[in-house]
UniProtKB/TrEMBL annotation:
Positions of the Glucodextranase N-terminal domain: 3-250
EC numbers: 3.2.1.3
Molecular function, one GO term: glycosyltransferase activity
Name by which UniProt lists this protein: Glucoamylase
Encoding gene (name): cga
C-alpha cells in the first residue's frame, strides 16, 4: 500500500554536532558520521556525496517508547584514540542499547551491530535516505526481507540479520515511522511504498541482538548483493579486518607525548584527517563530513568539498606526523586538479568539478609549500610532476598577485598579510624547482613583495592605535582601489555594512612569523597582537579562543538562531592554534592553547569550526566554549591542532621552509624594485635597479626630469610569463624623476607615469 503525505516535509541534513567520523582502510567507498549517539550521514561513493540523513533507533514496549537520539543519555568509546571503531551505549528507563558501527573494508556497506537489553523492549531502527545528495525525489519500498530506496543513479538496500519482523515506508512528517509512534504510541502502519519525495523506512527487528547492513550501489540489485555478502561473511570477521587496517596505519604515526589528553587528541586528529581522504579519488580531502547548520537546509555541498587550503593543511600535518605516503597522495591529487592557468578553484567536489567560483591566491601558493616541505624532507617521490605544478602555480601568482580576489575567509578582495606572506614563501620555496631566469625572477619578486607587506597592510596613528596606545597595526585587508588603506571594506554576512579598512583586524598577520618572514619580537607584530588580545580574544570556561575578525557576521544570531546569511561571528578553535604557534615561536608555552582546543572537542574528540561565546542558551544546546551549529569536525582545525602539538614537540612549525626562513632571518636589502601598474612605486631610494614589468610585451618610452633625453627600450622576458625593462641604478643616478609610458601591440597605453628618484 502506498504511503500518504507525498512528498513529505522539506528535507534537511542532520545536525553538525557529530560524535565521531569513520571509514574502512580498504577498497570500501563508504564514510560514516555519528551524532547524538546514532548514525548520521553516510557518504558513497566519494566523500562529497552523502546518501542518508541518519539511521536512528526507537526503543519501545507496551505503553512506552523512546527515541534514543533525543534522550542523549549515552557513552561512546573506541579501542584507541586513533581507531574509529565506535561503541555507543544508550541507557534508558529499563533498557540498555549497545551499537557498534563500522564500514566493510572490502564492500560499499555500512554495518551496525546492535544489542538491546530490557524486559519487553523491541527495537525499531529508522532510516532517512537522501540519495544523490538530497532528500528530495527519493523512493522507498519493501521487497521480501529487504528495505530499499532509490533515486536516479543511486540505490540502497537495508538488510537485518536475523531479520525484520515487519517494516514500513513513508513520507517524512506524515507517514514515517516516527510519526506512527508519535500519533499511535506503537508501530501500527505498514506501507509498502513511498514514491518521489522525502521518504523514510522503519522496521521492527526480530530479536534484541543482530546486525544491520546498509548496501550502496548504482542499482537496487547491486546494493542487495553487497549487503547480503557482508552479512554472509559475518560482523566479527569484518570487524577484525577493519581493526587491523587502522592498527597498521596507526603503527606509522610519530605522535608521542607526556600529557595523555593532549597526545590522545593529537592521535585522534590524525585519524580524523585520514578519514576525510577519499578512496574513489585518493588524495582528495574534504573540509568536513558535516553540513553547518544542517537541520536548516538541504544544500548538497555542505563542507564535503575540497578546499586546496584545507587539503594542504592536512598534508602538512600528516607528513609531520609520519604519514608521508598520505601527504604524497594529497600532493598528487593537487597536481591533478590544477587548472591549465596554474590556479585551483575556490573549492570543488572530490572528482574535481568546481563548486564555488571564487579565487584565492593563498590556495594557489599553499600547494607549492607542500611540495617544498616534502622535497626538503626527502619525501618527494615524483619531482617532475611537482616541478611542473610549481612552475604553473608561481606563474599564476606572478601574473595575478599580490592582491587576491578573495582572502582566506572567502569574503573580500585585496591585500591581506596572510595571503601576501604565503605568496612570498611560495615564490622562495618554489624557486628551487625552477630553472634560470625564472628562479632569479621568483626570488627577486618575493623580496620585493616581502619588503612591501607593511606598505600595503600596516597603518599608523589611527583611532584604534590612539585608543590602545599603539604605534600602528596590521589591518585585516587592504581593499582594492585608489584609496587603499584609507578605503572601506564591505563586511560580508552583515547586510551590506561597510567599515573603514583601518578598523578591521584579524590574526592573519601571525603567519608572517610562522613562515619566517618576520620575527616574533617585531614591534609591529607585537603591537597588532595587543590589539587582537583586546578585540578578538574570548575567555570561556574551556579556555581562550579568538574571532576571525571584529564585526564578523558568520555565526549564530545573538539569540542563538542558526546562521541564515547574517549573524554574529563566533570564536574559532583553529585560531587558538594559530595563537599557540606564535606563542611557541616567541618562547612561550603553547600548552594553554592546545588545552583550549581540546576542551572544545566532542565526546569522540572532534574539534568544531566555531564555539559559542555568549551567555548559555540551553534550549538551543549552546554553551560557552562548546561547539555551535557550525561544521564539526573541521579538518583545518584538526590539522592546526596536530601541527601545533608536533611543533611543540619538535620546535618548528610545519609551514616553515628552511629556504624561506634563512632568506629572511635578517632584513634583506632590495636589489631590484618591481614596478607594476597595480603596485607602482611613487618614489625609490638611490642605488636600486627598477624593473618595469607587465604580463605582455611592450616598448618602454621614457625620459628624466620632465621627459628630458627620451629613450625607448623593448621589454624582454624576465621569467614566469612576465616581460620587463631593467633600468639600472647607474642610469637613474643623478636624476630627480623618471617619466615613462608604454606601447603595446595594440598601441600606446594612453597614460604617463612618474617615479621620483631620491638622491644619495
Amino acid at each position: 500500500m502506498e504511503a500518504f503525505g507525498a512528498p513529505g516535509i522539506a528535507p534537511t541534513w542532520a545536525s553538525s554536532d557529530k560524535d565521531l567520523v569513520g571509514t574502512a582502510l580498504g577498497t570500501s567507498r563508504v564514510w560514516f558520521t555519528l551524532g547524538h549517539g546514532i548514525l548520521n550521514e553516510v557518504f558513497w561513493p566519494s566523500t562529497g556525496e552523502p546518501q542518508i540523513r541518519d539511521l536512528g533507533f526507537i526503543v519501545a514496549r507496551e505503553g512506552a517508547w523512546y527515541e534514543v537520539k533525543r534522550l542523549r543519555n549515552y557513552t561512546l568509546s573506541t579501542p584507541a584514540p586513533e581507531i574509529p571503531l565506535p561503541l555507543v551505549v544508550h541507557q534508558g528507563e529499563g533498557y540498555t542499547l549497545e551499537l557498534e558501527f563500522l564500514a566493510d573494508p572490502a564492500r560499499d556497506v555500512m554495518l551496525v551491530h546492535y544489542r538491546l537489553q530490557g524486559e519487553g523492549f523491541r527495537l525499531y531502527p529508522l532510516l532517512a535516505p537522501h540519495l544523490g545528495g538530497s532528500g528530495q525525489g527519493n523512493t522507498a519500498w519493501l521487497e521480501g526481507a529487504a528495505l530499499y530506496a532509490q533515486k536516479e543513479g543511486a540505490a540502497l538496500c537495508w538488510l537485518a540479520e536475523p531479520g525484520f519482523a515487519r517494516a514500513s515506508a513513508g513520507f517524512v512528517g506524515y507517514s514515517d515511522g516516527w510519526q506512527d509512534f508519535r500519533h499511535n504510541g506503537a508501530m501500527t502502519w505498514q506501507f509498502s511504498r513511498a514514491q518521489g519525495g522525502n521518504v523514510a523506512l522503519m522496521g521492527e527487528l526480530l530479536t534484541g541482538e543482530g546486525v544491520l547492513a546498509l548496501g550502496l550501489a548504482r542499482t537496487p540489485e547491486g546494493a542487495h548483493t553487497l549487503a547480503a555478502s557482508s552479512l554472509a561473511e559475518g560482523f566479527s570477521s569484518l570487524k577484525a579486518r577493519y581493526l587491523k587496517g587502522w592498527q597498521d596505519w596507526a603503527h606509522q604515526l610519530q605522535i608521542e607525548g607526556e600529557n595523555p589528553q593532549l597526545t590522545g587528541l593529537a592521535r585522534t586528529s590524525a585519524m580524523v584527517l585520514k578519514v576525510h581522504e577519499d578512496t574513489t579519488y585518493p588524495g582528495a580531502v574534504v573540509a568536513s563530513l558535516s553540513t553547518p547548520w544542517g537541520p536548516t537546509h538541504d544544500d548538497p555541498g555542505g563542507y564535503h568539498l575540497v578546499w586546496p587550503r584545507d587539503a594542504v593543511e592536512v598534508g602538512l600535518a600528516l607528513q609531520m606526523a609520519g604519514q608521508v605516503a598520505d601527504a604524497g597522495r594529497m600532493l598528487a591529487y593537487l597536481v591533478a586538479t590544477q587548472a591549465r592557468d596554474g590556479s585551483w578553484p575556490q573549492n570543488f567536489y572530490p572528482d574535481g568539478r568546481p563548486y564555488w567560483q571564487g579565487l584565492q591566491l593563498d590556495e594557489v601558493a599553499l600547494p607549492v609549500l607542500l611540495a617544498a616541505r616534502l622535497a626538503e624532507e626527502g619525501h618527494l617521490s615524483e619531482r617532475v610532476g611537482a616541478a611542473r605544478m610549481v612552475q604553473q602555480a608561481l606563474r599564476f601568482i606572478a601574473n595575478n598577485g599580490p592582491y587576491s580576489p578573495q582572502d582566506r575567509w572567502e569574503e573580500n578582495a585585496g591585500a591581506n598579510p596572510y595571503t601576501l606572506g604565503v605568496q612570498v614563501a611560495a615564490l622562495v620555496a618554489g624557486a628551487a624547482f625552477l630553472e634560470e631566469p625564472e628562479r632569479s625572477y621568483a626570488l627577486s619578486l618575493a623580496d620585493d613583495w616581502n619588503a612591501r607587506i607593511e606598505e600595503w597592510t600596516f597603518v599608523q596613528n589611527t583611532p584604534l592605535d590612539q585608543q590602545y596606545g599603539l604605534r600602528g597595526h596590521y589591518v585585516r585587508i587592504r581593499p582594492p582601489g585608489a584609496l587603499g588603506l584609507r578605503g572601506r571594506v564591505r563586511v560580508q554576512n552583515r547586510g551590506g555594512e561597510c567599515l573603514s579598512a583601518q578598523e578591521l583586524i584579524s590574526l592573519d598577520f601571525l603567519y608572517l612569523v610562522r613562515l619566517g618572514l618576520r620575527t616574533p619580537h617585531d614591534p609591529r607584530i607585537q603591537d597588532t597582537l595587543r590589539l587582537v588580545e583586546a578585540l578578538l580574544r574570548v575567555e570561556t570556561p574551556g579556555g581562550v579562543f579568538y574571532h576571525r575578525y571584529n564585526h564578523d557576521g558568520y555565526g549564530e544570531h545573538a539569540d542563538g538562531r542558526p546562521f541564515d546569511g547574517t549573524g554574529v561571528g563566533r570564536a574559532w578553535p583553529l585560531l587558538s592554534g594559530e595563537r599557540g604557534h606564535y606563542a611557541l615561536l616567541s618562547g612561550e608555552d603553547p600548552r594553554r592553547y592546545l588545552e583550549a582546543m581540546a576542551r572544545s572537542a566532542s565526546a569522540g574528540g572532534l574539534i568544531p569550526e566555531q564555539v559559542w561565546d555568549g551567555a548559555p542558551i540551553p534550549e538551543r544546546g549552546l554553551f560557552p566554549g562548546r561547539p555551535t551549529g557550525s561544521a564539526m569536525p573541521l579538518v583545518w582545525a584538526h590539522a592546526e591542532y596536530l601541527k601545533l602539538f608536533l611543533a611543540w614537540r619538535k620546535g618548528r612549525p610545519a609551514e616553515r621552509i628552511s629556504s624561506v626562513a634563512e632568506r629572511y632571518q635578517r632584513p634583506r636589502p632590495l636589489a631590484v624594485l618591481h614596478w607594476r601598474s597595480d603596485t607602482p612605486y611613487i618614489a625609490i631610494p638611490p642605488g636600486r635597479t627598477l624593473l618595469l614589468e607587465e604580463a605582455r610585451p611592450f616598448a618602454l618610452h621614457f625620459g628624466f626630469d620632465g621627459w628630458q633625453g627620451t629613450q625607448e627600450l623593448a621589454a624582454v622576458p624576465v621569467g614566469l610569463g612576465r616581460f620587463g625593462v631593467f633600468l639600472k641604478a647607474d642610469l637613474l643616478q643623478g636624476h630627480r624623476s623618471l617619466e615613462f609610458t608604454r606601447r603595446f601591440e595594440e598601441g600606446w597605453e594612453g597614460q604617463d607615469h612618474t617615479v621620483l628618484l631620491a638622491k644619495k
